[in-house]
Amino acid sequence: MNKKLLGAIFALSLPMAAQAGDLTARVGDGFFGASYEGSILLLTTSADWLSNDGKGNIGSVGLGVQAPLGIAKFKAGGKLVYMNLKHQDNRYAAALGGGVDIPIGAFTLYGQGYFSPSALSNGVDYYKEARAGVRWDMTKMLALDVGYQYTYVNGKDSNPSVTMANGIYAGAQINF
Q1: What start and end residues bound the annotated signal peptide (predicted)?
Q2: Are 175 and 142 in contact (CB under 8 A)?
């Protein structure tokens, strides 16, 4: 199934070559995450990977819309989530959510959250993720950030619940 997820990420990334975008890597206590986000006009595309050595991996691809309001940029959309959790069958979810970016000088405050109820999930009761932090835009191409990430999968049908990330992280971002 990892080949299908990588194929979907590649397919989404082809039209992104002409888009403005960013690549982010973040490391927290027990977890590692990587993200891509691209935008063209009012559309956004995303790809995320979260790995926790003791618990498994979660990958997602997303599509959304964005709208500026004053200095803030609001985003709303959905993502398809693939969960490869240790000692469990692979699970899937369609999560809905959004986020906000608020630039303040050389810094940007950001936050995002996604949720998938049981009706939009396969094999899990619900899936939720949230990430918030502050990014220091060192140059036009490079930024450093620190934040908090929480990712939780509530198990169902004898599958245990899993907290993939719950803590502070440090990260770096490349903008292009």
Answers
A1: 1-20
A2: yes
